[in-house]
Amino acid sequence: MKAIRRFTVRPVLPEPLRPLSDLARNLRWSWHAETRDLFQSVDPEHWAAAEGDPVRLLGRVSPARLAELAEDRRFLRRLTAVADDLDDYVTGDRWYQQQGDGLPAAVAYFSPEFGITAALPQYSGGLGILAGDHLKAASDLGAPLIGVGLLYRHGYFRQTLSRDGWQQEHYPVLDPNELPLVQLKEDDGTPAHVSLALPGGRALHARIWVAQVGRVPLLLLDSDVEENDPAERGVTDRLYGGGSEHRLLQEMLLGIGGVRAVRTYCRLTGHAEPEVFHTNEGHAGFLGLERIAELGRLGLDFDAALETVRAGTVFTTHTPVPAGIDRFDRDLVARHFGPDAELTGLDPRRVLALGTETYPGGEAGLFNMAVMGLRLAQRANGVSLLHGRVSREMFAGLWPGFDADEVPITSVTNGVHAPTWVAPEVLRLGSRQLGVQRAEDALTVGGSERWDAVAEIPDQEIWELRRTLREQLVLEVRSRLRASWRQRGAADAELGWIDGVLDPDVLTIGFARRVPSYKRLTLMLRDKERLTELLLHPQRPVQIVVAGKAHPADDGGKKLVQELVRFADDPRVRHRIVFLPDYGMGMAQRLYPGCDIWLNNPLRPLEACGTSGMKAALNGCLNLSVLDGWWDEWFQPDFGWAIPTADGAATDHERRDDIEAAALYELLEGRVTARFYERGRASLPDRWIEMVRQTLTLLGPKVLAGRMVREYVERLYAPAAQAHRALAPDTARELAEWKARVRAAWPGVSVDHVETTAPTATAELGSSVGLRVRVGLGELTPDDVEVQVVSGRVDSGDRITDAGTNPLKPVGNPDLEGRWLYEGPLFLDRTGPFGYTVRILPAHRLLASTAETGLVTAPSEEAVESAGVLLR
Questions:
Q1: How many CB atoms lie within 10 A of CB 415?
Q2: 599-634, pLDDT tens digit by residue?
Q3: Which terminus of the chain, N or C, has less C-beta within 10 A?
Q4: Per-residue model confidence as pLDDT tens digits over 184-230
Q5: What is the dihedral of CA 794, 799, 803, 807, to 10 degrees?
Q6: In what residue span(s) does the DUF3417 domain sit (predicted)?
C-alpha cells in the first residue's frame, strides 16, 4: 500500500555520539577522508546503502548499534579527534586571515546551481560543479563567503535508458529533512522566510535552508511552502525547468530573494554583511536591482545607488555564444516590475534599460540577463584566457568605439577542488611523499608553480597506482552497466557478457559531460569502422567509457546519446566501449581517476573552460583535447596531445567534423596507443609514466580551485571592496552627477587637429616623435578627460593590432575658440609597420577602467590629413 503522507523520523543519538550530528550536517565530510572513514565505521553495510551520505546513514542505524558505539572507547576517541579537527578547521586562521587589511569582510556568491556532493543533488553540469568547488576552496582558504542558490525539490533529473537507447528522465522528490540541511529560524523558533510581490496582488514566499560547506554557509531558497498558491509552490520545482515566466520567477527569487535571505541570515547569526556581491552567470542578475532599491530606501537616487552597487559587484560569464544567455520578453519583465508587483520604488523604464540590447544586431523587444549583469557590475570576467577574449568580442557592442581587447572583461581561469576530485589512493601516495600537512596545503592553498616532489616518486609506484585505479574503474563500470541493462529490461541470464567488459590492462579513454551539440559526443563515431579497429586492435587496443545527460527538451542531444548507446550495444565492441547513464558527481569521482586519457572535442571556441580534464589531470590522467578553454592556455606536448582544429570560416560543420575526427583517429593510432604500450626499463612504459609525472608536476598547481579563489580575492574581490568603501553616499552622488554631466557634454568633445614632428615615413626603433593635438572639450575641462596616443603595429588595413597607450598633457589655457592644446612624445618601440592615433576618454579617479563609461572620441578625417598617421 502507498503511504498518504511522508515524513522523516530522526534517531535520538546517545549523548556521547552527539558530535556525529554536527559532523553529518557540515558538508566538509564530502571532501574530508577521516570524517568519511569515521561514518563508514558506524555501520559499513548501511554506509554503502546510504551511498556515503551521513544523514541517511544516521537515519538507518539501529538504536542497539548506537548504544554499542556510545560505549566503544576507541570509537569515541576517533569521534573526538574528528570533531576537534572540524572545530579547528572552522574557527582557526587560514590563508585569508593572513593577508592583512583591505579584504572584504564578506562576499555573497550567487549561483543558480551548486554541486557540493551527490547527497545534495542541486546541479546539472559544469556551472554548478564550479560553484561548489568555489565554495569549498573559499572554505579551505578561510575566505568569508556566503553562497546563495535555490533548493530544487526535484533536482535536475535522473537519467535511464530505454531498451533502444533513448534517454528517459525521472524526477524523484527530494525531502529537505532528509538532506544535509537545516532550516534558518527566527529567534522565536519560526521559520525565516523571504517574500516577493507578484502582479495581481499575489506573493511568492520562500523558506531558507542552510547547507554548511565547511566554513561557508550556503543559503537555499525553497518555494514549496504552504503559504504559496500551487503555481508559486512550483517555482523551485526543478533546475532549468518550465517556461519563460517560470524561469523569470526563479531568477527573481534567486537575485532579489537571495539578497533578502543574506540580510536575514546576517541579522540572525551575526555574520558580517557582504561588501562584495558575486554573480555566477546572469541568472542572479536581479540582485543588483534589490540592492539599488535598498539604497533608495536610505535616500540615494537611482543613479547614485547604481554607482554604489556597481562598485561592489563582480559578474562572471560562462557563456561563449549569445544563444546561451537567458533573454526574456520585455513586456513580461515590465509586468513583474510594474506598480503592483516587485520593487515598486524603481522606475520600470530604468529597470528595462539595464537589460536592453543596444548594440548592433540586438533585439529591442528582449531583456538580456547577461547585459544587465555587465551593466550592474564594475568588474567582470570570463573563465579562461580564451573565453575572456571570446567574451570581449561577444559583448564589444556595449562599448562602441573601443577595440574588443579594451572591453573591460578580464579572465580568471577556473580550477577544481582537489580534495573532492583526487582519488584517496592518489592522496595517500602524495602524503607519503610530502607528509600529510604539506600534501593538504599543496592541494588546497596552492601557490607553488610546480610540484617538484612528484619527481621523486618511483616509476613502479606510479604505474602500480594507475593500474589499481583502472582496475577499480573496471569493476565500477561492470556494476553500473549491469544495473543499467536491468533497467532497460534485460534478465540476468542475458548479462553474463558484462563480466568481460573492459580490461584493467587496456588503455582507457574517458568522455563524460553534458550533451549539447557543440561538445560533439559522437565525433568519435564519425568513422565507425576505424573506431572499431582501434577498439579491437590485437596489440594496442583501446577501451572507452562514455557518460552524459542531454537536456530534457533537447531531442537533438538525446539522438546523439542514442547513437552512441546503439554503437556500444553492438556485440562486436560492447566489451570495449560502454555508455553509463545518470552521470553525476558520484560516478565522476570514480571515472576521472580510472582513465588514462581524458577526451575533449568541442567545437572551438565554444568551451568556456571545461574543468573535467582538470579533475582527470590531478589523478594522473593525460588530456587529449581540442585547444579550447583551459587546454588552449596550458597545453604542452610534455603532458598531453592537442587535436588540430579546422575552424576556418570557409569550412562547413560536416567537413570540419570529418577533418577533426580524422585527426583524432590519427593521434590515437600513431602516437597515443604507441606511447602507452611501449615498454622500456623493467618492462614499464617509461615515456608514458614521464608524461603522467609532468601532468602532476606542471598542471597540478595550476588547475586548483585554491589558485582560482586566490585570484578572485586578489584581482576582483579586494578591488571591489575598496571601490565599494570609497563610495560613501556623497561620493556616489558626485560620481553619478559627473557621469551624467560628461554624457550630456560629450557630443561637444572633438579632436580637431593632430601634428607630428616626424620628417619622413620611416624612423628608427627607440626614437620618439613629438605630437601636438588640438582638442575641443565643450563644457568639460582637462580634469574630466584624458587625451591619449594609441600606437602599435598595423595590419594591411591600417588597424593597430597590439596597441599601447600613453597620455598627452595639456599645455597652457584654451585658445580664443575654446580649444585646448595637448603635447607629448610618441615612442617608436616596435619595428615594422607602425601606426598611431589619438583619442579622448572620460577620466575620473573612481572609474575601474578607461572604457567604463563607453565614451570615446577619435579624430575626424579632416583632423588626420596632416598627422602623418603611419610610419613604415
A1: 27
A2: 999 999 999 999 999 999 999 999 999 999 999 999
A3: N
A4: 999 999 999 999 999 999 999 999 999 999 999 999 999 999 999 99
A5: 110
A6: 13-120
Q: From residue 113, give the alpha-carbon distance in Å to each of 35, 238, 255, 707.
A: 25, 11, 13, 22
Alpha-carbon span 476 to 481, nearest angstrom: 8
Residues of the chain with pLDDT under 50: 867-872
pTM of the model: 0.95
Contacts of 109 by beta carbon, 8 Å cutoff, 6+ apart: 131, 134, 135, 138, 145, 146, 147, 148, 278, 280
- Written in H, E and C, the secondary structure of 258-303 is HHHHHHHHHHHHCCCCCCEEEEECHHHCCHHHHHHHHHHHCCCCHH
**Residues with Cβ within 8 Å of residue 296, at least 6 apart in sequence:** 302, 305, 345, 346
Q: Which residue type does 484 have?
A: S
Cβ neighbours of residue 629 closer than 8 Å, sequence gap 6 or more: 384, 386, 387, 602, 607, 608, 609, 610
Interstrand relation of 819-827 and 768-776 (parallel, antiparallel or unpaired): antiparallel
**Cell for 49?**
546503502
Question: Which SS3 state, helix, strand or coil, does residue 349 take?
Answer: helix
Spatial contact of 745 and 779, defined as CB atoms under 8 Å apart:
yes
User: Which string of b and e fits 775-814 if b means at least 16 CB within 10 Å?
Assistant: bbbeebeeebbbbbbbbbebeeeeebeebeeeebebeeee
Could you give all domains of the chain from N- to C-terminal order, each with its CATH number? 15-91 (no CATH), 108-381 (3.40.50.2000), 424-703 (3.40.50.2000), 742-867 (2.60.40)
Q: Say if residues 693 and 455 touch (Cβ distance below 8 Å).
A: yes
- Of 791, 771, 765, 778, the closest CA to residue 819 belongs to 778
pLDDT in tens, 59-103: 999 999 999 999 999 999 999 999 999 999 999 999 999 998 899
- Rounded Cα distance between 312 and 292, Å, is 12
Tell me how far apart the terminal alpha carbons of the chain are, to the nearest angstrom.
88
pLDDT digits (tens, 9 = 90+) for 406-435: 999 999 999 999 999 999 999 998 888 878
Nearest to 350 by CA among 363, 362, 333: 333
Cα gap 136→218, rounded to integer Å: 11
Strands 577-580 and 542-547, by their bridges, are parallel
Q: Could you give the 3-state DSSP secondary structure of residue 195?
A: strand
**Which SS3 state, helix, strand or coil, does residue 499 take?**
helix
